[in-house]
Amino acid sequence: MSGVRELELDFKNGRTIVEIGGSLGRIGDLPPNCRNIILTDGNVRRLQGKRFPEGPIIEMGEGEESKSFEQVREIFSELLELDVKRTDRLVGIGGGIVCDIAGFVSSTWMRGMRLALLPTTLLAQADAAIGGKNGFNLGGRKNMVGTFKQPEKVLCDVDVLATLEQDELRNGLAEIIKHACIADASFLEFLDRNIDAILADQRAIMEKAIHDSVQIKARIVQQDELESGKRMVLNLGHTLGHAIESTGLNHGEAVSIGMALSARISMRRGKLGEEETARIISVLKKAGLPTELEVDAGRVLEIARSDKKIREGKLNFVMLEGIGKPVVVPTTLEEISGDLNDIG
Ligand SMILES: NC(=O)c1ccc[n+]([C@@H]2O[C@H](COP(=O)([O-])OP(=O)(O)OC[C@H]3O[C@@H](n4cnc5c(N)ncnc54)[C@H](O)[C@@H]3O)[C@@H](O)[C@H]2O)c1
After folding, report:
1. Of 18, 219, 282, 291, which cross-links 154 as Cys (Cβ 3.0–4.6 Å)?
2. Ligand 1 pocket, 123 CB below 6 A?
3. How far is 156 from 167, CA to CA, in rounded Å?
4. pLDDT at 229
5. Is residue 121 in contact with ligand 1, taking CB distance under 6 Å?
6. For the residues 101-114, what does the mean pLDDT come to?
7. Confidence (pLDDT) at 332
8. Where do the domains of the chain lie, and which CATH numbers do they carry?
9. pLDDT tens digits, residue range 170-182?
10. Average pLDDT of the residues in 100-123
C-alpha cells in the first residue's frame, strides 16, 4: 500500500509536520504563503531542479568540505543580496549536508527565519532531517558549530531516491537498521525480510521503512531535545564508527562495523543473546554492509581517543541488552580494547 503518510511531531522548540510520500513540488503549498528561498547543491539541482517550488535558488557545494564556515558565510551574503526577511522560509533540498546547513543558516539568520526541509537521500529522509540538530565542521572536526532548530515541515518525496547510488542507499539503511536495533525488534524483522525490496527502491516498502525510522528517531529526540542524556542511544555504532570512518570507509560502512562490534561487545559482556547478535549481523550483511573490522583495532582506538565526547578518560558507549533495549555504558578505551582483542 502506498500513499502519503503524515506524522505530527511536537517538540519543545516547535512542531514539525513530516510528510512521507508527498511530491517535492508541493512544499510551496504551505500556509501562510511566504517567500521560499531554496538552498540546494549542484547534483540535486541538476536532477530535480525542474520540480523545485518557486523561489530564488542558492546553490552550495557538495561533500563534507562544504559543511564549512566559509560556505555558511557565502550563503549569508546571498541572503543579504536577496533581502531575505525572517518571515521568509528557507527550503533545504538535498542530502544531510544541505539539511544541516539549511538548519544552521535558518536558525541564525536574523535570529531565526522559517525552515522547511526536502531531504533527497535515504539517510537524510530517515535520519538527518529529523530531530532539529544542525551544524558545520570546523578545523577538521565534524559538527563543531551548530544549533537546535526544528523545521516546520519535512517532506520526503520517495521518488527522488531513484537516482541515488547504491552506496548512498546503504548509508541510509545503516541508520534505519540502527533505529530498529535501539527501539523495535519487529521493525528489525521487517527489515530482515525486506532489505532487497528497499535496495530495489520498492515504493511502499521504502515508505514504511522511512516512516518507522522517522517515528523512532522523533520519539527519542522528544525525550531529550538538547541531547543531555537519552538521545545518546542514537550513537549506537557511531563511537567506533566515526573512528573507523576516518580510516577511509564511507559512513554507512563504518557505522555498520561499529554496530556489529557493539553487538558483539554487548554479547561478550553478557548483555545480548547470541541469537540476537547473529540477527543484527545478518541484517547488516543482507544490506551489503560490512560487519568485520578490517583495519588495525589499535589504530581505530587511537583515533577514537581524540573524540570530543570523551570526558575524564571515559566515553559513553552504547550497548544492547536486547534488540530495542539500548543501554549507555561509561567505558574506557582500554576496556573496549580488551573487548576487541577477545573478539579477535
Ligand atoms: N543533523 C542530524 O541529525 C544528522 C544525522 C545524520 C547525518 N547528518 C549529516 O548528514 C551528512 C550526510 O548526509 P548524506 O549522506 O545525505 O550526504 P550528502 O548530503 O553529501 O549527499 C550525498 C550525495 O548524494 C547527492 N544526492 C543527494 N540527493 C540525491 C539524489 N536524490 N539522487 C542522486 N544524488 C543525490 C548529493 O549531491 C551528494 O553528492 C553528514 O554531514 C552528517 O553529519 C546529520
Report:
1. 18
2. yes
3. 19
4. 81
5. yes
6. 98
7. 92
8. 5-164 (3.40.50.1970), 229-343 (1.20.1090.10)
9. 999 999 999 999 9
10. 97
Whether the pLDDT of residue 1 is over 50: the answer is no
Nearest-angstrom CA–CA distance, 264 and 267? 5
Going by the DSSP 8-state scheme, the letter that residue 90 receives in this structure is E
Confidence class for position 28, pLDDT limits 50, 70, 90: low
Q: Which three cell numbers stand for residue 140?
A: 577538521
Q: Is 120's C-beta closer than 6 angstroms to any atom of ligand 1?
A: yes
**CB of 101 within 8 A of CB of 134?**
yes
- Mutate which of 47, 71, 121, 127 for ligand 1? The one with the most ligand atoms within 8 Å of its CB, which is 121
Counting ligand 1 atoms within 8 A of each CB, the residue from 65, 100, 101 with the most, and so the one to mutate, is: 100
Cell 517532506 found at? 155
Q: What is the residue with the minimal CA distance to atom 39 of ligand 1?
A: 62
Residue nearest to atom 41 of ligand 1 (CA): 97
Quickly tell me which residue has 587511537 as its cell. Answer: 302
Nearest residue (CA) to ligand 1, atom 27: 95
Residue 315 CB neighbour total at 10 angstroms: 21
